[in-house]
């Protein structure tokens, strides 16, 4: 029986390749998550923000940290004790710099770790990440509602379903059209919704006023890049030229191996002509059929999440 519990707060930081940031402290052999022990009267959230800033030079935004829950495992460095860790999830591009107690940092593939891991990572958290890797999704969709009322039902169902499954929604930050409908449904069901919107659209008064968090950027390019940084997967609802731009930008990057994240088309009836055209382009030799096959097509949130979490990344085009 462990003689005592060691309470810590830590963060699971994941990059676009699906790798997780791990650190090894000076004088120890096993890698663990960034974080540490709480100071007096300090919350778990405040503790992990402080620790990561002190030890890695990374400023975490509290609004972007997703609570994962509390995990218990045998302590890696203190014999006879268990570590009890409050974990947060953070999907973003960061550049850690080892400082204070940290001897080295390493990006680790949870499925094929290349370093020695603490029991918390090896036995508890990494198996969960492998089984359910998708915790934040980018939702691409129209700033109008279109003529088919079925599309509004799809937006409502997606937003509500993501909230019910505890999956964070990242989208373009607007209050109008299907994008606003999906955000409203997610918020109404207790979900977390983060918007990323260019300043000119804020000036045009279409920014959603009730989001969990709203980031304002300068350009549409920055919007797409920031959304990509924050998510584990992409889901496309019906939309127009902007939605197609976002879809093909993410899909091309996937083909080139710039990220290893699944892409889904939600609403098979709407997307059928697009899929048909892509198959035609594959037949004509302009697209690999394997890349067309990587696109997920789903009509329900349950079907969608099962497919997203079981998806395997294709071999990059130029590999």
TrEMBL record:
Keywords: Hydrolase. GO terms for molecular function: hydrolase activity, hydrolyzing N-glycosyl compounds. Residues 3-131 form the Nudix hydrolase domain. GO terms for cellular component: cytosol. One of its GO terms (biological process) is cytokinin biosynthetic process. Pfam families: Lysine_decarbox (PF03641), NUDIX (PF00293). PROSITE patterns: NUDIX, NUDIX_BOX. Belongs to the LOG family. PANTHER family: LOG FAMILY PROTEIN YJL055W. This is TIGR00730 family Rossman fold protein.
């Amino acid at each position: 029986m462990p003689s005592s519990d060691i309470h810590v707060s830590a963060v699971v930081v994941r990059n676009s390749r699906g790798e997780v940031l791990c650190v090894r402290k000076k004088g120890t052999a096993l890698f663990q998550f960034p974080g540490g022990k709480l100071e007096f009267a300090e919350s778990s959230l405040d503790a992990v923000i402080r620790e990561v800033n002190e030890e890695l030079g990374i400023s975490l935004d509290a609004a972007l940290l997703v609570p994962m829950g509390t995990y218990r495992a045998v302590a890696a460095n203190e014999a006879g004790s268990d570590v009890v860790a409050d974990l947060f999830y953070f999907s973003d591009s960061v550049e850690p710099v080892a400082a204070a107690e940290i001897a080295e940092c390493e990006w680790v593939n949870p499925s094929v770790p290349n370093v020695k891991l603490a029991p918390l990572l090896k036995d508890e958290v990494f198996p969960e990440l492998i089984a359910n890797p998708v915790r934040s999704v980018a939702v691409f969709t129209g700033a109008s509602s279109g003529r088919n009322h079925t599309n509004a039902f799809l937006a409502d169902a997606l937003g509500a379903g993501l909230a019910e499954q505890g999956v964070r929604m990242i989208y373009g930050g607007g209050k109008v059209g299907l994008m606003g409908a999906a955000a409203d449904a997610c918020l109404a069901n207790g979900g977390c919704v983060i918007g990323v919107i260019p300043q000119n659209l804020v000036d045009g008064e279409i920014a959603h006023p009730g989001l969990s968090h709203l980031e304002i950027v300068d350009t549409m390019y920055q919007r797409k890049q920031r959304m990509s940084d924050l998510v584990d997967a992409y889901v496309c609802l019906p939309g127009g030229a902007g939605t197609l731009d976002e879809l093909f930008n993410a899909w091309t990057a996937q083909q080139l191996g710039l990220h290893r994240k699944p892409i889904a088309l939600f609403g098979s009836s709407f997307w059928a002509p697009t899929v048909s055209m892509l198959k035609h382009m594959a037949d004509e030799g302009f697209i690999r059929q394997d890349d067309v096959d990587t696109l997920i097509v789903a009509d329900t949130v349950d079907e969608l999440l099962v497919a997203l979490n079981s998806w395997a990344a294709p071999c990059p085009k130029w590999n």
